[in-house]
Amino acid sequence: RARNFLVGVPCDEIDPSILKKLKSNNIVTCSDQCIRLKYDIFEDICFEQYIDKIFYGCKGDYKAFFNKLEKIGRCIYRRYQIWIENKLLAKHNRDKFIYSLLFAKNLPDQWRKQTEIGLVKSRHSENFFIENTNTLIKENLLVEFVNITNLYGFELDVPFSRDIYLTLKNSGIGRKCLID
To answer: Exposed (0-12), middle (13-18) or buried (19+): which is 13, by Cβ within 10 Å?
Structure first.
């Protein structure tokens, strides 16, 4: 579904007994002979577990890791950013995982960019930026992060009123962390 940017998948592609259980547990919804997860968070959780499995299976071979992710298609980029954001919650992940990904010399440019976008858009990145300020400066990544912030660190705030005006608001706390 995600790979093909479809709203749902045909109900007849799902085993009827499994479909019945998913419906009874209020996990999926069906319409027009299509089935989809009822809430986006379910899909986020599935993607996070799937990416974890690929990452731990690659055993530090980031090229193999990213090659497997790319086979999923363009839908994986935002899911990868969410995965990065969730990895920021634990110090162990920041010290080992995020640090090694961001500062790896063999990280493909498009995935470095997705990693940086995930860090900038995260609501949990403050400790990462505090802990790695000197390394970001030493590795000449500060300007790169500012550019990423300017392109991806904002979202539109559209008020529900007759007076239509658009404002930008921060998406995550990366901008604040870079300024501090």
So the answer is: exposed
